[in-house]
Amino acid sequence: MKKGIFICHCGTNISERVNVEHLKSVLESEGYLVRDHLFLCSQDAKQLILNFQDEVDGFVIAACSSENHENYFSSFIRKPFVIINLREQCSWPHADRKHATKKAEDLIRAGINKLPYIKKPKTVKTKMEESVAVIGGGIAGITASIELAKLGYRVYIIEKSPSIGGKLLKFDKIYPLNDCASCVISSLISEVSAAENIQIHVYTEVEEVSGYPGNFRLRLRRKQTYVDWEKCTGCGKCIDACPDRAKVPSEFDDGLTFRKAMYIYSPFAYPKKAVHDPEACVNCGKKKIGTRRMLRSGKEYQTPCEKACPTGAIDRSKNWNPEGEIFEIRAGSILLAMGYEVMSKNSFPEFPSHLPNVVTGIQMERILSPTGPTGGELLVPETLRKPEAISFISCVGSRDERYHTYCSKVCCMYMLKQARLIKERNPEIDVFIHYIDIRAPGRDLEEYYTLARKLGIKILRGRVGNVEPLNNGKLRILGFDSDTGDPVEYTADMVVLATAVELRESERDVARKMKLDIDSSGFVKEKHPKLQTFETSIDGIYLAGCVQGPKDVTETVLQAKSAALSVSSFLGKGEREINIETFIDVEKCTGCGMCIISCPFRAITAENDIPEINPISCRNCGICYSVCPVKAVDMATHGKAIEKELEGLKA
């Protein structure tokens, strides 16, 4: 087998530490056809490889990671080929040029040894569902759904809360133009609700994901509302009738206010329907859900909410299932747009987080919003009086080895936004911002920061060491100004903690159900951090918004639209070509069943003790190959080929 070896300099990424000329000299002396190029991924290098396609039986491409360019090389190389990673495995991790070059030579020889054992996979075609499941009903999910619906796909929006809209429903303004957040999200909600080919499933969670790219099956659980939404008009009379003792902290106001057991998620909820919370319910008249209570008069007792409902949407005598309704949908592709959460203020013992006057950035959004607990008037939560001074503290939980080492990206800008809104509405209030670094990159954001300073907002570089509660209800702020080298001490009426943006554990669980990776920061990992930022390791599953990492509204919308185009590109062909890489030699097989037991995707079944691999379900993971005691399983580009590669490495 004549082998062609092509070595990439990758600019200087590889050649700076790997002696390419030495590799060429050694390999050419052994009779191999060897060529090098500054960039093997360039068009002239492509032509160089094509010129030798008829002269060799296989190629060893010694370049960078196969994740970067395997699809590119496979698009035009018609012979077996192996990609050897000289950049990430040789040049980047090793400072010693001699050692890096020796390692590169060993890896290339291992690739040479592997090449003869690579087989061409067989292919089958499968029809794809022309529908998309969008998990998350915030601005990312809504934007992507609208774009997909315009392209003609049926879209299922799956949202765990009782309303779509996400975090933007809670905001007053969006930087840098300080335009109305409700106006932005409300218009999108109107558009998505009017689209004929979009189905919205709120108060619904993902229980299980099965199937394969192009034909996913999602098992969903619609949680129990205990209200007939077909009859409910959202009038709110049941809420008025619900007693005050049936109260719990409001999710929409982030605990600043309370809601009753009967509630509508937000003033602009869609769908605007009532929900009953059985955990908060006090069971008026001792009438529990699913029971009937008869009065002496012979009439059935009705709870206040039942009496108040003009349409009969509430019937507590019905035996509702607390587990909700289980149903299934099929989708050709899945888009994860599950949003984010900010860390609770109770996560930080260094601050008196138990005090109502210490709030998070999201809680301040609710205070400033006209739909918030004070109707947009800035009042101290404990006293309901206008504050004289407010202190913002940045990087609480971010850029901190105790919590999250990453920057949450949006905190600097939303602190500046909130501080500006406060100062513009109440110039007499003293506003302080304590920061490590102000990060305001991009168009209009530096100007936004400059204007905040001109408004008289005191922006101090340096951490806050302590926040002490005083007897008069105020808070003493003890910090440091690193620009002047002086300690800082003053009193404030409120402290706003810019707590870290993170992904909820429940959202990570949804990703794990799809066998997706979670990165070291706790977000769902993309396929490639630069080239494939909204693709995942599984074809047909895409990312949009903060599920992949902290983003502002502009970035989120941009990624949602891009992800929608990628979904359309994936589903647009109508059918998908699948490589069959794993084979079973039935003559060698003893019928032990180890491959069937070990397959995590249930892709192997047996009839008359003869195992068979379903190419649609198989992910070519190689587990069956590794557990087969008689080596009846083989793989086209893995399996025995990898064993020979390892043998070549040892040699």
Overall description:
- The strands form twelve sheets. The protein has a five-stranded parallel β-sheet with strand order 10-7-6-18-29, with helices on one face.
- With 651 residues, it is of the alpha/beta class.
- The protein is built from 17 helices and 34 strands.
- It has five domains: 3-121, Rossmann fold; 131-222 and 330-339 and 504-575, FAD/NAD(P)-binding domain; 224-323, no CATH class; 342-502, FAD/NAD(P)-binding domain (3-Layer(bba) Sandwich), CATH 3.50.50.60; 581-635, Alpha-Beta Plaits, CATH 3.30.70.20.
- Helix content is 26%, strand content 24%.
- The two termini are 19 Å apart.
- Helix 5 runs antiparallel to helix 17, helix 6 runs parallel beside helix 14 (553-571) and helix 10 runs parallel beside helix 11 (411-425).
- Its EC number is 1.8.-.-.
Mean pLDDT: 93
**Low confidence ranges:** none
- The top level CATH class name of the largest domain: Alpha Beta
Radius of gyration: 30 Å
What profile does the largest beta sheet have? Answer: 5 strands, parallel
Layout: helices, strands, pairs:
Elements: E1 3-8, H1 20-29, E2 33-37, H2 43-51, E3 58-63, H3 66-74, E4 81-85, H4 86-91, H5 97-114, E5 122-127, E6 131-135, H6 139-150, E7 154-158, E8 173-174, E9 179-180, H7 181-194, E10 198-201, E11 204-212, E12 215-222, H8 237-241, E13 247-249, E14 258-260, E15 262-263, E16 275-276, H9 304-308, E17 325-331, E18 333-336, E19 341-342, E20 358-360, H10 361-368, E21 389-396, H11 411-425, E22 430-435, H12 445-454, E23 458-461, E24 464-469, E25 475-481, E26 486-492, E27 494-499, E28 501-502, H13 505-513, E29 541-543, H14 553-571, E30 575-580, E31 582-584, H15 594-598, E32 604-607, E33 610-613, H16 623-627, E34 633-635, H17 640-650
